[in-house]
Amino acid sequence: MEKNIQDFIDLIKKKNPNEPEFIQAVEEVAEAVIPFIEENKQYQSDKLLERMAEPERVTMFRVPWTDDSGEVHVNRGYRIQMNSAIGPYKGGLRFHPSVNLSILKFLAFEQVFKNSLTTLPMGGGKGGADFNPKGKTDREVMRFCQSFMVELQRIIGSDTDIPAGDIGVGGREIGYLFGYYKKLRNEFTGILTGKGRSYGGSLIRPEATGYGNVYFAQNMLKTRGQDIKGKKVVISGSGNVAQFSAEKILQVGGIVITMSDSGGYIHDEQGIDEAKLAFIMDLKNNRRGRISEYVDTYSSATYHEGERPWSVKCDIALPCATQNELDGDEAKALVSNGCICISEGANMPCTPEAVEHFIHSKILFAPGKASNAGGVATSGLEMSQNSMRYSWTAEEVDSKLYSIMNDIHEACVTYGKDSDGFVDYVKGANIAGFVKVADAMLAQGIV
Ligand code: GLU
Predict the structure, then answer these.
(1) Which candidate in 84, 254, 407, 421 could, as Cys together with 123 as Cys, close a disulfide (CB 3.0–4.6 Å)?
(2) For 166, phi and psi rounded to 5 degrees?
């Protein structure tokens, strides 16, 4: 078995040189799924995993745009259409200077399993550009989005591929992208999710990834007779996922003591309460400022420049910033400080060494493809509402999100429970995600 895993990983490395993030994501899935395939004969034919690790289609394109002073800039745009076995391609767009083929392929690959876990009919995709929205004016962002959509519109559609947001792509960018698609195609359809409320967006979509992350953590804690009330929670990031993870933690009685951005983290041992969180949301969403500004207003807090929050003593950790933001040493620090539960709000924030340490320590650890699936699940609910030309209330969407997160947790337990009763959520999520996609691929022939 070890040899089969190694042979498969060698093949992936050979086919995808210089794509470390993509190889990392495939390796994690292969380690869980190959032993399962060996025990289940029906999945041994047709090179299922090999086909899953090869995108159905990759599009790369030039995105020229002019800044406010008239200077021309050229960025690179991408869309990875990874797998459409169980539904149209679905997944976000990331605008960040670090974006490259490896990062988008890892995200698209993860998305296939995540979307499968949601129980909704969505295939997997991801896209974006190496554009940095930071420091750009609204008009510059608009011109960039319009140029990006000129190319993207050729390959997306409400029954083909439905992008959404991710890092650097929020309500503002989705609005500009949607407006330009509509102008180019003369068509008002649900081609993007995360839209504004006034033009087809779903209630609870902005909150969904963070809320879902906390619902998943609650489910995990329940398996050990625990809950969030009174527990100290360390959160990284201060974007959409971090903000709404914090909001839900406060609603269920937890104490949020850190948040961060790429500059460093703030530590407020007295707790970031509702008013302080509202300050952070305004700072980040409207003023587009830095987290360091928090300590100018709240002198009880300290700012740690260039550092990550994982050395702060806590009960629960929610990494909600970006990939590979929590390494093996930081995982050791968390566990030795008494942390009992880690739920990934970001995609692949923990390195393989960190994940291994959490599982080895037998604490609760949820991989992002399970714990952050609430975002894309609610995108799926937005698609349903768009198709029906109807919209559900916030309570209706939230209760559907809640039960989807419970179902994902159940699926992880079904496939991830070891003989000693420990639930390996990484194994569970990967196998549960694999099974639905594999069954559909087997039924559809070699395509
Ligand atoms: N970017 C989010 C994710 O990583 C959301 C994708 C979507 O809503 O399509 O799942």
Answers:
(1) 84
(2) -165, -160
